[in-house]
Specification:
The structure is a single chain. The protein has 239 residues and is of the alpha/beta class. The chain has two domains: 1-30; 43-233, SGNH hydrolase (Rossmann fold, 3-Layer(aba) Sandwich). The chain is 47% helix and 10% strand. The chain is built from nine helices and five strands; from the N terminus they run αααβααβαβαβαβα. It has helices at 2-18, 20-29, 38-50, 64-67, 72-76, 91-101, 127-144, 165-179, 215-233, and strands at 58-62, 81-85, 109-113, 150-153, 185-188. Helix 6 packs parallel to helix 7 and helix 7 runs parallel beside helix 8. It is globular. Residues 1-29 have low confidence and may be disordered.
Length: 239
């Protein structure tokens, strides 16, 4: 108990002192409930009231990998995109808030990166549990927006969570197989490009925390994801 309290205190201190690095450590050891993100969702709604976003953009949702993608709009230009990533979200958190961060925007397409954090914390989920959470989220989206394609970015291999990679990779395979049976679902596999000749994550793609992408990591993702979206959504141009 004392050890857990010490880890929690150290991680929270890291959030203050180290920004993204401390943030990564905290969410490596914890899996907050969906209600933890209420303030982040409310902030999106306040932003929307003050500066209503144009409907029909390509919506990016997910965890901190999406949050920290500060160059997303420039990277995806001339396509018009909207970033609604929040914190260390799990797949189930996206499901919980879909009626507030997905459906109101009537997106032309949805790009998801989440599932990474599901394997963190003291009680990591299994590959099957993560797949089930993915299916619940995408089924909900398909029911509400049947004409909207969903693109799922594979759970990435990382230095910090390398021990979880076998389960992550299994989840990716389960999701790939399921997406192949649904015309509205598309799987974008970024994982092979993130592995080096030794089969391990390429260190140069990550921030010092070993979990979040640096500029080079996002450049790699852009080189894979943008052509896929541009092929189908060249008409979704910035205005």
């Amino acid at each position: 108990m004392i050890k857990r309290l010490f880890i929690g205190f150290a991680a929270l201190l890291g959030v203050v002192l180290l920004g993204g690095g401390g943030y990564a450590v905290y969410f490596y050891y914890n899996q907050p409930r969906a209600e933890f993100w209420q303030s982040a969702i409310t902030a999106f709604e306040q932003e929307d009231r003050q500066n209503p976003p144009a409907l029909g953009a390509i919506l990016f949702i997910g965890s901190s990998t999406i949050v920290f993608w500060k160059s997303l709009a420039a990277d995806m230009a001339p396509m018009r995109v909207l970033n609604r990533g929040f914190g260390g979200a799990n797949l189930s958190h996206l499901t919980h808030y879909a009626d507030r961060i997905v459906f109101p925007y009537h997106p032309q397409a949805i790009v998801i990166y989440a599932g990474d954090n599901d394997f963190g914390g003291p009680r990591p989920k299994t590959a099957k549990e993560v797949f089930t959470a993915f299916r619940d989220l995408t089924d909900l989206i398909t029911q509400a927006l049947p004409e909207t394609p969903v693109y799922y970015i594979a759970i990435k291999p990382s230095l910090l969570r390398w021990k979880a990679w076998p389960q992550m990779n299994t989840a990716n395979h389960l999701i790939t197989e399921y997406a192949a049976t649904r015309t509205s679902l598309h799987f974008i596999d970024i994982s092979p490009a993130m592995l080096g000749a030794d089969g391990r994550p390429r260190k140069k793609l990550f921030r010092f925390d070993g979990l979040h992408l640096n500029q080079g990591g996002y450049a790699l993702w852009t080189s894979i994801i943008k052509p896929i979206l541009l092929k189908h959504y060249a008409g979704s141009l910035s205005t």
